[in-house]
Amino acid sequence: xxxxxxxxxxxxxxxxxxxxxxxxxxxxxxxxxxxxxxxxxxxxxxxxxxxxxxxxxxxxxxxxxxxxxxxxxxxxxxxxxxxxxxxxxxxxxxxxxxxxxxxxxxxxxxxxxxxxxxx
Length: 119
Prior knowledge:
Elements: H1 5-28, H2 35-38, H3 59-83, H4 85-112
Helix pairs in contact: 3-4
């Protein structure tokens, strides 16, 4: 049980810092609301207008999200594999090659659908 004490302390510190940041931001932040502050923020560019009842997102949005998830999952699985490569042997190598081929198929699909073009 003593091994978990530092992890619990770190979790408590993280929650305390998050709570402190939210409370201090609401207490010290400006209270004036205007139209520009209530609009959605799109990475420094003018937001595209949306219909009142919502609207359909373009397919490019979903392709970008899929590409992010593909690379995120790839990194999550590649790091532990690289650390334990010596212990896995040939089985680990074959499994990782199959995994990378699967990721490359998803990458080729996104590339073919135009998910990498920024226009």
